[in-house]
Amino acid sequence: MDKRSYLVPTLLALGVHLAVLLLLAGHWFDHADPRELKPRHIQAQMVDLGAMSQALEKQTEQARRIEAQRKKDEQRKQNELEQVQEKQRQQELAAQEKVLQEQQLQAQKVKELTAQEDLAKEKAQQQAREQKAQEVAAKEKAAKEKAAQETRAKQAAEAKLKAQEQAELAAQKKKQAEDQAKLAAEKKKQADAKAAAQKKEAEARAAAEKKKQAEVAARAKADAEARRKQEEQQRKEAEKARELAQLEKELAQEQRIAADRASQQLMVSMTDYINGELSRNWRVSSAFRNGMEAVVEIRLFPSGEVDSANLVLSSGDSGFDNSAVQAVFKVDRFARVAEVDPLTFERNFRKFRVKFRPEGLRW
Amino acid sequence: MKLRLLACCVLMLLAFGVRAELMIEVTQGVDAPTPIAVVPFGWNGGTPLPEDIAEIVSTDLHRSGFFGAMKRSDMLSFPQQQAQVFFRDWRVSGQNYLLIGRVASVGGEQLQVTYELYDVLKETRVFGEQISGSTRNMRDMAHYIADAVFEKLTGLRGAFSTRIAYVTAQNQGGGRHRYSLQLADADGARARTILESREPIMSPSWSKDGSKLAYVSFESSRPGIYVQHLASGKREKIQSFAGLNGAPAWAPDGQRLALTLSKDGNPEIYTLDLARRQLTRVTHHYGIDTEPTWAPDGQSILFTSDRGGQPQIYRVYLSDRRIERVTFEGNYNSSGKLTQDGRFLAMVHRSAGAGAAFNIAVQDLKTGRLDILTQTSLDESPTIAPNGSIVLYATQQGNNGVLAAVSLDGRVRFRMPSSSGDVREPAWSPYLQ
User: Fold this and answer.
1) Cβ of A174: how many Cβ atoms within 10 Å?
2) What secondary structure, in 3-state letters, does A203-251 show?
């Protein structure tokens, strides 16, 4: 609770007490005259209602300034609060839903604080009004007593005094009415201010809500955008991965083709080599004829050395068959076969067949 | 249906295990004889043997054109038993085969010859045999061994044990000659005279069983055709018509002779049934038809005729007397002789063009290709070994005629051992029983 909130009632109370003391000061000084003590006279003291009125107005003006100051402070506080809220909302944006809830809670707290403050203010005002009313009542009572005394003391001037009292009473009533009106106006003003504050708060809330919705929408949009971007990214990554896979596949294909080509070249090279070796060692007899054909199955050791050579298809001519088998054994060792990798050797050169079919013979 | 499916599945499963096996095709080889080493045969007797069996075998194989015999001077060792054979040595020296043997005396002139043939590259024994004979027929044993080795390694029957007949003419001065019909081993060795005459002897021809020779002799007033039994030496005059009687040729069945007779005014081809002495005229043409030779199937006769303006070889089919020309290359083709399979025709050939010589040529009757085998100038009278590997012919060396031989592919040429006099008209015998 801010100390300033008690200042106005305290000042008002002091003002009322001071006014009462001023009113009673003359009466106290009259007690020094013994003559005036003996008879029972009602001593009337002239009360300067105008001065009182001015004092009251001054007090009211001061109270209004205080109130204005208070409102200003409240406005400033409100602004600060809003700034804080704005800041919190910004933080909420970062912290998303959780921060928003916290902000709501904070707003609720602020609202409650404001309501408590208002309630305290109203209570203080009410106490001040009640105190004032009590003082007024006491003052009326004292005035009545004084009037009665004066009535009793001055019956002659009773009417005038009565009139004056009535006037005072009326003025006082008027003043009370005015005070009440003021109080009502103040209350209304406070209510208006409260309503305005509530409206402003509602507007702020609405704005915040709107902003929040906008933020949510923006966030949703951002999320959607992020999702879209993520999907796009995923699509691109998938595309990239697919391209990479395709590239790897093509690379593997190329490597396979290259390997096949190399293997084919190796095979061609090796078959040419074997063919050359056999041709150099195959003795073609004059008894051979074009169209003769014999097939020999050759088994090699990995060193290229001939393990065996067996006739698997005879030409029908034993001399021709013998010459084919002899050609293989004459080579004895196909040296370059030793350079072939073990897999290729096992697949192709561990065992293979050679067809001896002479061409270009005279007959 | 299920069975079919099951069979398909089994076949497919089998197919997984089947992989195309590498097949290399060799179409070219080396045009060279197969190297063989014939090691001198061991001999356990005291006195030297009259013949060197290993040398005869080596010469036979070498002259066949199929083998290249290793010189003895190049041999690192002379093994006689299998235990003494170091294959590596023979392999290093480039030999494919190794023949070793040993001769043992079994009492008197009787000998026992053991020989073994080894495959140097496979380091295996190919075969071996033990034969018996006497010191007098050591050449026969050697030719027998050569025949066996030749047949084992080439698949062709060897012809080293066959004979050749030929005519020699000794100039006795004064324009007189002495003619002899000679009979010799296929390598020209052991020649012996089976007929001598002051008159020319021509065209000897072997009967298919090798027991008889037919020939033309001018020993009487006019040329006559004679048949002589080799075993007994008995001679028989078959024909002696007026005019030309010549060029007898035995039919494959041994019952007929083809002859050239001019008894009808013009040399024509006839056949003579020896049993019935019946002549059959085969050709009817105003040109000269001569030098008949039988096709192996006995269904046709090839002969030389100038009916086309130049001597060429024709074929007449006995069934319908249809005649076809066989040779077309060159301006002279005569003295045709067919191989036993009837595919190749050896002949005297002269190419077209001035200055061309008379050479021995061979024509593949299947393809029509003709190859000239010799490079000498006056070659004549070709005769073919029964296995078709060698063509023997007469040629001129200086002023004398000599015998020479060439392999059917022209790769191997060699001269027969020189005989005294002018040698001509060779005739190679068939396989002898």
Assistant:
1) 13
2) HHHHHHHHHHHHHHHHHHHHHHHHHHHHHHHHHHHHHHHHHHHHHHHHH
- CB-CB: which of B26, B155, B369 is closest to A356? B26
Q: Cβ-count burial of A11 within 10 angstroms (0-12 exposed, 13-18 middle, 19+ buried)?
A: middle
Query: Residue type at A58?
Result: K
3-class state of residue B113 by DSSP: strand
- Distance of alpha carbon B318 from alpha carbon B226, whole angstroms: 24
Alpha carbon A42 to its chain centroid, in Å, reads 80
ipTM passes above 0.95? no
Q: Which residues of B touch A347 (CB under 8 A)?
A: 19
From the list B386, B320, B313, B387, the residue with the least C-alpha distance to B350 is: B313
Contacting residues of B for A354, CB less than 8 Å apart:
23-26
* A-chain residue closest to B21, CA distance: A352
Longest dimension (CA), chain A: 189
Residues A254-281 have pLDDT tens digits of: 998 998 888 888 889 999 999 999 999 9
User: What pTM did the predictor assign?
Assistant: 0.67
Q: What is the DSSP letter of A23?
A: H
- The pLDDT tens digits of the residues spanning A27-47 come to 666 554 444 445 455 455 555
Question: What distance in Å separates the CA atoms of residue A23 and residue A30, rounded to the nearest whole number?
Answer: 12
DSSP state of A317: -
Q: Does B20 touch chain A (CB under 8 A)?
A: no
B314-348 burial code (b ≥16 CB/10 A, e <16): bbbebeeeebeebbeebebbbbbbbbbebbbbbbb
How far does chain A reach from its first CA to its final CA, in angstroms?
Answer: 133
